[in-house]
Every structure is written in C-alpha cells, then in structure tokens.
Amino acid sequence: MSAPGRASVGARFSVFAFSAHLRALVRSSELSLVVVAVVVGVLAGLGVAAMTELVDVAHVVIFGIPFDVRLSAAARVAPVAAFTALPLGGLAVGLIDHWRRVRKLPRAVDPIEANALRGGRMAIGESLIVCAQTVISNGAGASVGLESGYAQIGGAIASRLGLALRLRRQDLRLLVGCGAGGAIAAAFGAPLTGAFYASELIIGAYSLANAGPIFAAALAATLTTKALLGAPYVIVAPPVAALALGDHFVLVALGLISAAIGVGAMRAAALLERGFAATRAPRWLRPGLGGLILAAMAWYTPQVLGAGHGAIGLDFSARLSAATLATLLALKLSASLVSLASGFRGGLFFASLFAGALLGKLYALGVAAVLPTLGLDPTACIMAGMGTLSVAVVGGPLTMTFLVLESTGDLSVAGGVLAASIAASLAVRATFGYSFTTWRLHLRGESIRGAQDVGWLRDLTVGRLMVSAPPTIAAETSVRAFRAAYPLGSAHVVVAIDEAGRYKGLVLVPEAHAAPLAENEDGGPIAAVARLPETSLHPDVDVRTALAIFDAAQTDTLAVTERETGAALGTLSEAFAARRYAQEVDLAARGVLGGG
Predict the structure, then answer these.
(1) Cα(228)–Cα(224) distance, rounded to whole angstroms?
(2) What is the per-residue pLDDT for 589?
(3) Hey, do 245-449 and 456-589 end up sharing a CATH topology, with the first three levels equal?
(4) Of the four, 113, 133, 144, 541, which is 20 to 30 A from 579 by CA?
(5) pTM of the model as a whole
(6) In the chain, what are the domain boundaries?
(7) Using CB atoms within 10 A of its CB, is residue 500 exposed (0-12), middle (13-18) or buried (19+)?
C-alpha cells in the first residue's frame, strides 16, 4: 500500500478510535453527559435565534412594520398584505406537506412523541421540514407560535447527537429533553421554565440524576440566544401586590374556568379539522383557505396574528372594556384553532399565554365588580390566567409557575399561580385527560397521555415473547391416539388445529391422560377436551394487554394465532410474560430515577 493510502487508513482508524472512546466516556460519566447537554443547549439556542431572525425579517418585509414592532402589536396591517401573505403562506405549507406525501417521506415526530413511543429517536431531515413550515406559518402571520419549532429543532439536534454517541434509551430521552427544554428556555429567557418544561412535558418525570444535564442545557441555550438577539418571547410584568389567603381561592376558581375553556378549545380543534375536511378541498389547499379566514380576522385587529407577544405587552396596561376583552379572547382562540385545524404549523404555547392574559384581565374586572372589597391586584389575575390556560392546553403546572416567577420575580404571586395551575391541571385530567399535543396524537389513534417512556412496552409484544412452532395435533385425532403421540412428560400443552392449521384449542397433556378409557374405546376427538378454543393471543398484542387476557381467561398458557387467518403460531406462558414485563418495568424505573 502506498504511503498516502496508509495515512488515510490510519486517519480513519484514529477517528474511529476517538469516537469509540468518546462514546464510552459519555455513557459511563455523568459529567461527560452534562458537557454534551451544554453543547446541545448552545445548538438549540442557535436554532432559536436563527428561526426568530427569519420570522422578524419576514414580518418587516411582508407587512411593512418597523423592525422593533411586533406584528400583533401593529396598529393595523394593510389588507392587501394580509389577504396575500396568509393564503400564499398556507398554500406553501400545504404544498410542502403534499410533496412529503408524494415522496412517501416519513412523518416527523415531536419530542413528546419521540420520547414516549420511540425512545428519543428523531430525524433531522423531517424536523427541518417542520421548522421550515413553522417559520413560513408564523412569518405569513398565522396565529401560531414558533415554540413548537424551537422545541422540534432542539430535540432533533439532541437526538441526532445522542444516536451518534450510541447512548442508551434513557440517556437519549434525557438528551432530547435537554434540547427541547433548552430551546424553550432560550425562547423565554427563562432557564427554570425550560428545565421544568423538559422534565414535565418531554421526559415525563422529575429526577435529581437528570437535573444536572437539563439545567446545564437550559442555561447554555438561554445565554446563547441572549448573546445573539435577546429572548424572543420574554415577558415583563409590573410588580404585583402580595396575595392574601382569600386571593388564592379566587385564583383557583380562575384555574377551573381556564380548564373548561382549554378543554373546549381542544375539542373545537377536532371539530374544525373535520369541518375543513368536509369542504372536500384538497388537503394541500386547506391551509390557504384557513389563511383567508385569518386575513378577515386581521382586518378587525392585528392582535390575532402571530403568537401574540406584541399584543400581550400592549394589552397588559391598556384600559379595555369587558366586551373588548371577551371579543379579543374569542378571536385569538378562534384564530389559533383555525390556523392549526387548516394545516398551518406552529404551537399554542404563547398563544395560550396571550389568551390567558386576556382571560385573566376579564376575570379581574368580574372580581372587582362582584367583590369590590377584596382588592385583588389585576396583574395577579393576568399572570394566573396566563399560567392556568397554558396548563390546560399545553400542560406542565410547574413549568408555567416558574415562567410566572421568572417574569415577575415575585414568590407570592407564583404561589397563587401554582395553586391555580394545579387546580386547572387536575380538572383537565379528570374531565379530559389530554394536553393539546397528546389529544392530537389521540385523534391519530395513539393512546399516550404524556411523555413517559412507553416505547419499550410497545416493543415487548407477544410475537417477541412466544414459543414458536409449538407441538400440535389434529383436532379430530382420538384421545387414545393423542396419548400415544404425547405420553406424560413429553409436553405440557399441545395445540389442537384443523386441517387448514387453524387453532381449535389447547390440550393439557396431563388432563388428556387423566380420564379413564376402556380397552375398546378411543375417547372421541381430542378437540372435545381442548380448552379455550375461542381465546388466543395475537403477535402484535403488547405484554400488558396479554397479561390482562391471561387474567380474564384464568389460565397459565395461551396459544398465539394469526389475527386474520387464525393459524396457530406459538404459545406463551403467563409466568414468562409476567417476568419479562417486570424486568422491563424495573429497567424503565431505574432509568427514570437515574439508575443504569
């Protein structure tokens, strides 16, 4: 081999050896994982800055607003701009989706779905498509926020890095939480908010072992974005008067109202999606139709456009009547739901904060009218409305409480918001059970209600656990012939099948030998003593469902059959299924608690 060839092989070997050493170091050292989390946080912060800058430029160019004015805070927008940008932006988003379906590209998964069902696996390519659609949607003025795109790119970067390092499932899920939480922290300039967003909504558990990487990523992302352009969604609230005990009960009542509005909004989203489908318009055209509806709303007020960051600052101190507040609240919720139902891409995190602020301000007027002697600070109602409606829609009571705390710096009001947020969360869980993200997954047929790692459960199926090619016997075979074919001790159970191989029952060998037979009798067909001819498992059933079927059938062994044809494929014992389930539960719990 020539000298250059040997040098090339040596360089590749050195890179491989370094990569292997780095993987081993990260997998064995918590400090190394913190360093990786910091890298993820920096990259997430860069992604937040890039997306924000693109959208800000788009708003200036398309709507002609000053660079230092938010779109939703503009006094008015030109109808020509709104009726052009929103339908064309929607059309662009729809055509991208159509192109993806034609090319049969896989659907992108968000960080919650990735951690719940895929062990933290996300694809960069599909995530970049989602981010592009989110930038187009918000840039054209759709009533959605960029925060879902922020979390998407942060989680995807983290997942790609974790896969390159061949991290274990739990470490990969943790890193995805670091990426998504870091992006949210950067968006709001609130590292505590981002850290609890990662724990509550992305990872689905709190753990001291996870705290180091999560907080490191959140802080790194926040500092990165602040150094480049400042936090895009930072909320600045005026000082709030200290809350009395009675004030907490009033805020809890606001939490319950927020829960009702949040559940209604989520159910309305499904109805609106069906409404757009009922128009028979091609799917790629529906975002354009939604854009026309949004443009008509923007003609009334630009506050329905974008996430609403500018509008929330504008309305915070403005003297608005109850009728105006109720109108703005209805319009904002409607605009956000129309945006998502028609096919625009984006999140409801900040939109729900803005709608919650309007609700809180409206609630404060009602409290002042009904209980004028209470003296509750309207700002406390506004912050509680923001937190509770966001909890109802997005989830995460601690996330929203820390957002209020980092916005106001006031522990007293944060305590009141926490009480109200917990009330809202409990009410939604009791009456509905989903956040907006998991509700949309439910509409697609998924059953998850949070980011807890259930991917291992889906992978642990009967098909993986069963004993293939079990001993079989023709169902019409006589009992005497069965005894000859399967003497005591040769097998525990035998599957009875018909001439086409279809399952006809389970024969317990000791039972078949127990009945007395006269010398001239054959005992009749073995199918007569077969058990559970109508009960069997299928290969795609998960182990938890299988254990429930065992319990209902009150048996320790079941046959496994093909779902369509009924052909016998194998057998599974309850003891083995229970042992494997217990092992996986133990591994998942150890991962959540920071164990190996």
Answers:
(1) 6
(2) 57
(3) no
(4) 113
(5) 0.80
(6) 12-228, 245-449, 456-589
(7) exposed
